[in-house]
Specification:
The protein is mainly alpha-helical. The chain contains 6 helices and no strands. It is globular.
């Protein structure tokens, strides 16, 4: 008798769970820290600069899809992820190449090495062209 009651309780729980509307939270890596308000997208590079330099436009697209999740839409850093705004093209390029080469750079090396490993030379050049334009 206890077995039937247990099975009925499990079935009822599953049925109720399936009927209720469940809102799932975004994955933890996509959440902004509680103290940070949702940021507007970073101001795009000046239109004339983007039109004149398709590399900047490619860097903006790559930044939004790869980098902004951890470093923030305005590259100001989030949580443990450092600020990128204010770095020069040479600094961006150098860091990404070092991460891609597997050089130990600090506590987040494993995450950045995995990310940089998937970046082509063109992606790195595009990011190095775009990131210094954020906020100009």
């Amino acid at each position: 008798m206890h077995r039937r009651a247990l099975i009925a309780a499990i079935a009822l729980t599953l049925a109720l769970a399936a009927c209720g509307k469940k809102e799932e939270a975004p994955p933890p890596e996509a959440k902004a820290p509680a103290s940070e308000t949702p940021a507007a997208p970073p101001p795009a590079a000046p239109a004339a600069e983007t039109a004149a330099n398709p590399l900047v436009a490619a860097g903006e697209a790559k930044f939004r899809t790869v980098c902004a999740v951890c470093h923030g839409q305005r590259a100001e850093g989030m949580g443990n992820y450092p600020r990128l705004a204010g770095l020069t093209s040479d600094e961006i390029r150098s860091k990404l190449l070092d991460y891609r080469a597997g050089k130990q750079m600090g506590p987040l090396t494993a995450i950045m090495a995995a990310t940089a490993k998937d970046l082509s030379d063109e992606d790195i050049e595009a990011l190095a062209a775009y990131i210094p334009t954020i906020g100009r």
